[in-house]
Structures
1.
Amino acid sequence: MEFSVKSGSPEKQRSACIVVGVFEPRRFTSVAEQLDNISDGYLSNLLRRGDLEGKAGQMLLLHHVPNVLSERVLLVGCGKERELDERQYRQIIRKTINTLNETGSMEAVCFLTELHVKGRDTYWKVRHAVETTNDTLYSFTTMKSKKDEARRPLRKMVFNVPTRRELTTGEKAIEHGLAISAGIKTAKDVSNMPPNVCNPAYLYEQAKSLETEYQNLSVEAVDEAQMAELGMNSYLSVGRGSANESIMTVMNYKGGVPGQNPIVLVGKGLTFDSGGISIKPGEAMDEMKYDMCGASGVLGTMHAIVQMQLPINVVGVLAGCENMPDANAYRPGDILTTMSGQTVEVLNTDAEGRLVLCDALTFVERFEPEAVIDVATLTGACVVALGKHASGVMSNHNPLAHELINASEQSSDKAWRLPLWDEYQEQIESPFADIANLGGRDAGTITAACFLSRFTKKYHWAHMDIAGTAWVGGKQKGATGRPVAMLSQYLMNKAGVETED
Ligand code: BES
Ligand code: MN
Ligand code: ZN
């Protein structure tokens, strides 16, 4: 998709389609009013006859509106003017894009970016129009033998801004929106790949292919032999039942000044989580191919920030592994010695994410990080607590937690903080080892984070549980690309990039 910004009046546009809003009940936006005037009341006539009420998401496609140079006019219901918030704005853009794509308009000039959206500026409206458009047009067809594509797909969108003064802002918003969209697409593509293709080596290859495009990105693999030397026995144990070798991919982006301490992102990369010997029930087990969405989220974020060439140093770790039952598999009752030296009693082999992450989190100490953020589809309990709408954030450092929540609000990639009080630590005590890998039924998301906190004492750390947000199940099954937008925003803030008008 191609995007651009423009500042012009609707009647002067010569395009396949111009997109203008109508509020409920039957109230013109100023742009629609201009079109009505030059068409001698053609639009108000339609509204009077009841063709469009203006309810949010209503669409009316018109051809050859008198005196209008564009071939089509798409009237878009925007709901009540005073109720237009960011969620409704995105829904309206989504419907608009689908309508344009299905009705043969290969390009369009869109005036919806001029609408007043509560609490949001032009930068936000343009950036989110770009992100939402790309998200809407995404489909995963790599594995289909026949691909059915729209006959005349939407190719080019022009977003109109109210004044020429806002053109630079709009262009910046497009550039950022494109980078974030590219990162989200990378995350979705890798996540949607089936687990017989997407294994730990595949994650490494994806990172490698990004490396070839950018000079200041280097990518290395830590394989099983190296992990054994480092004493990463906990990580290794999880992968022992799998025929696919565990591989930890380390991506090093140097956009900042040399010597500046990096921000480290660590992604859980279970390319399939069967549960291991504590095997999962069969229902929806296919969705456990998405247990690598932490890793793909980190990969996607790295893509976005190297495309923007943010002036900051960032290390991205993809903790690739597969959890399978097998004669070699680790078992409940095993006691593992982690890279940190702490011992762990395995009570359930399905609580494997924390066992992989704990060693990865010890490994990253070597980077002397300014902060470490791990991202993981860690607990079903997080879906119970927050549903599919918000990622969980937990941290040992309040300012870091606040920075992440702020980034989530700025990027409309929802996240909510959960507490990490010491009271919860008791739940993961073990009679035989230093820690148990299970904390019982209560507060499962928090006790999983408590487990990780035992390995992150040497730096500022936050944990994001994306079990509810990384993909959707059911008929619309697919990866969402979350939390690429939020993490990219966090890093843009860290790098001092302006993301406002
Ligand atoms: N990958 C799962 C968590 C998960 C489950 C994410 C369902 C999204 C949807 C994780 O490895 C796991 O199995 N967690 C267990 C932990 C339990 C054994 C303490 C869970 O949540 O049931
Ligand atoms: Mn599991
Ligand atoms: Zn898992």
Note: The two ends are 24 Å apart (CA to CA).
2.
Amino acid sequence: MGLEAWYTDGSDEDQRKPHRLNPNQPVSLAELNKLGVFHWKLNADIHETDPELEQIRKDQGYSYMDIITIHKDKLPNYEDKLKMFFEEHLHLDDEVRYILDGRAYFDVRDEEERWIRIAMAKGDLITLPAGIYHRFTLDETNYTKAMRLFVGNPVWKAYNRPADEFDIRRKYVASLQGS
Ligand code: KMT
Ligand code: NI
């Protein structure tokens, strides 16, 4: 099963709303792949023993994992963190997230700087490439539980836009030219 994604209306009000254009302008998985975004659908109910997840972790080298619950009663500094997650930023490494419960949105910029909203639900594993500008928000259900995967020791440092001078950003931008 695919992932649902769409171009947003660009409005700044209530980040938790879908912000679809009217008519909706969907974005296909193939288009996301061109931006370096990849997706797997897994059975989150068996995440502790899932051989498919094990295989992905082995193939991609995701040696590290932890689980974050994003809910006002569960996450310390909930409001501040949500604010940080929704600031447009990039990382020097891939961002890999597997939704175990609830829902959330990842927004990524396309090659023309338009925001694409990716609707993530239980069972969706996504990888955002190092250097892509993105942001994260809960939806109107206000809850998600996600596995964070990482190659080696995790580095969560986010560089808010503008962060165009990093090698990894230049490399990412160059990777879009050929596609
Ligand atoms: C990030 O860097 O965008 C995040 O870690 C998002 C929240 S984790 C589900
Ligand atoms: Ni991020």
Note: The pocket of nickel (II) ion (ligand 2) is lined by residues 89, 91, 95, 134, 158 (CB under 6 Å).
